[in-house]
């Protein structure tokens, strides 16, 4: 478990790693070719390890050198994704399209629900069947078959990040043009687009759709991942919640304007340059309302950490979660720490309490875990956060980075 002696203001500079949610589709994109794909700035965290093991299980060779990952080979790809890896991480489902496009057949277990509520894959399957895949279900797995995928027009009911990635990946090897209407526009998709273009795919983004012109085959590429905006937001909030002053470097301010706007309304002072952002916490922040929304809206992945911050603000904040049905895993443990939060449907009403108290709490997913660590940093005394494997899934060296900002945080058995 993670132990935090809270009550100190965090101060200093924190370097931001490459984005987890760009690394996962980029690693999976390597399945589209046998030539080397070289990725720089890859964060060393558990989900990345799972993705690496997955492409290895499918037939790829990999080698690491510091934060550079080289993936190659896989002339004969396996069509079966191991259930154990897919169930560990939902993003594994993205192998469906690339494996299908390469081998004509793919069998990938359904990832199932998770701590954020039901997370179906119907948009992925709708998209791939529009591209000509025959989809059946066998023993809890999806079986997709197609001699060659054929480009088509696909409308997404919601701008799903994963479904858009799935269609970019599959469309890149399909015959003809794939047009995705209402695609997701998260920066991680821009990064994936850059990688696919380097591999030889033709991808054109328009205001309301994206066009992928498929190729017979794709080649290798060398690519650098973008900074992790959610990691940067988490550490800036750690500064804000402790009334400190934190500067995130090697970061991209443009990707965090929604968060910075709300922090500024809450009374924090914000400054930024080309690749850094600094937040100075207020004596006592003010309540602000926000709702999560697809990019450039407020990211759902920062909703739980932002709720921790609002828990100590002055006044009542209304927080509406529109991306997930039930992303409230942080609420009960925050209440244990003295927060006043009421959930009604998709809305959390947060009555700021000024001070949180230390407690032993449990993280149920990556961002709920981050929210609890932030709350623990603000609470006077020692808190214990169990479920630390969730933090290890999504954050590279979180304890080390927080210690660099002056936090007293350590790990204990139990
Ligand atoms: N959805 C469907 N059907 C689908 C796909 C999605 O109903 O076929 C629903 C989901 O259940 C959810 C909403 O659409 O309610 C949005 O899901 P989306 O597909 O956009 O999410 P994702 O691709 O599964 C990625 C990130 C998440 C992040 C979301 C939203 C990765 C690996 N994961 O998930 O990150 O919350 O986009 O921005 O990129 C995290 O890092 O902690 C994390 C959960």
Mean pLDDT: 96
Query: What CATH architecture of the largest domain do you see?
Result: Alpha-beta prism
How would you characterize the largest beta sheet? 4 strands, mixed
Radius of gyration: 21 Å
Order of adjacent strands in the largest pleated sheet: 21-22-1-23
What would CATH call the class of the largest domain? Answer: Alpha Beta
The unreliable regions are: none
- Name of the CATH homologous superfamily of the largest domain: Enolpyruvate transferase domain
Ligand roster: uridine-diphosphate-2(N-acetylglucosaminyl) butyric acid
Number of helices: 14
Structure characterization notes:
With about 425 residues, this protein is of the alpha+beta class. It folds into two domains: about 1-15 and about 225-410, UDP-n-acetylglucosamine1-carboxyvinyl-transferase, Chain (Alpha-beta prism); about 20-225, Alpha-beta prism (UDP-n-acetylglucosamine1-carboxyvinyl-transferase, Chain). It is built from 14 helices and 23 strands. It has helices at about 20-30, 45-55, 85-90, 95-105, 120-130, 160-170, 185-200, 230-240, 255-265, 305-310, 330-335, 365-380, 390-395, 400-405, and strands spanning about 1-5, 10-15, 35-40, 60-65, 70, 105-110, 135-140, 140-145, 155, 175-180, 200-205, 210-215, 220-225, 245-250, 270, 275-280, 290, 315-320, 340-345, 345-350, 360, 380-385, 410. The strands form six sheets. A four-stranded mixed sheet has the order 21-22-1-23. Strands 2-14-16-15 form a four-stranded mixed sheet. A four-stranded mixed sheet has the order 4-5-3-13, covered by helices on one side. Strand 15 (about 270) and strand 16 form a beta hairpin. The model has no long low-confidence stretch (mean pLDDT about 95). Uridine-diphosphate-2(N-acetylglucosaminyl) butyric acid (EPU) binds near residues 24, 120, 184, 301 and 323. Uridine-diphosphate-2(N-acetylglucosaminyl) butyric acid binds near residues 121, 124, 158 and 301.
């Amino acid at each position: 478990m993670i132990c935090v002696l809270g009550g100190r203001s965090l101060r200093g500079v924190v370097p931001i790693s490459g984005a987890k949610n760009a690394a996962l589709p980029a690693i999976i994109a390597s399945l589209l070719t046998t030539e080397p794909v070289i990725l720089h700035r890859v964060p060393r965290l558990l989900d990345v390890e799972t993705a690496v093991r997955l492409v290895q299980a499918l037939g790829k060779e990999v080698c690491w050198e510091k934060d550079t990952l080289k993936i190659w080979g896989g002339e004969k790809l396996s069509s079966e994704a191991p259930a154990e890896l897919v169930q560990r991480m939902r993003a594994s489902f993205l192998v469906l399209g690339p494996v299908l496009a390469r081998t004509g057949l793919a069998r990938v277990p359904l990832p199932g629900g998770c701590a954020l509520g039901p997370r179906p894959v119907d948009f992925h399957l709708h998209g791939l069947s529009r591209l000509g895949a025959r989809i059946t279900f066998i023993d809890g797995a999806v079986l997709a078959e197609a001699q060659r995928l054929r480009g088509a027009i696909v409308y997404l009911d919601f701008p799903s990040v994963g479904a858009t990635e799935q269609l970019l990946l599959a469309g890149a090897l399909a015959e003809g043009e794939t047009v995705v209407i209402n695609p997701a526009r998260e920066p991680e998709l821009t990064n994936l687009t850059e990688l696919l273009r380097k591999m030889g795919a033709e991808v054109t983004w328009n205001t309301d759709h994206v066009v992928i012109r498929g190729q017979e085959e794709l080649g290798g590429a060398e690519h650098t991942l973008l900074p992790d905006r959610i990691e940067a937001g988490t550490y800036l909030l750690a500064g804000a919640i402790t009334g400190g002053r934190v500067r995130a470097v090697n970061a991209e301010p443009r990707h965090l304007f929604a968060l910075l706007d709300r922090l500024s309304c809450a009374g924090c002072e914000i400054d930024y340059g080309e690749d850094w952002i600094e937040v100075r916490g207020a004596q006592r922040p003010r309540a602000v309302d926000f709702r999560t929304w697809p990019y450039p809206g407020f990211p759902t992945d920062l909703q739980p950490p932002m709720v921790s911050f609002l828990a100590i603000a002055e006044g009542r904040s209304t927080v509406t979660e529109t991306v997930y049905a039930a992303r409230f895993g942080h609420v009960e443990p925050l209440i244990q720490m003295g927060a006043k939060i009421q959930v009604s449907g998709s809305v959390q009403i947060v009555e700021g309490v000024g001070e949180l108290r230390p407690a032993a709490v449990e993280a149920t997913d990556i961002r709920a875990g981050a929210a609890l660590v932030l709350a623990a940093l603000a609470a006077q005394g020692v808190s214990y956060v169990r479920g630390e494997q969730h933090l290890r899934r999504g954050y590279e060296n979180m304890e080390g980075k927080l210690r660099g900002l002056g936090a007293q945080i350590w790990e204990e058995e139990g």
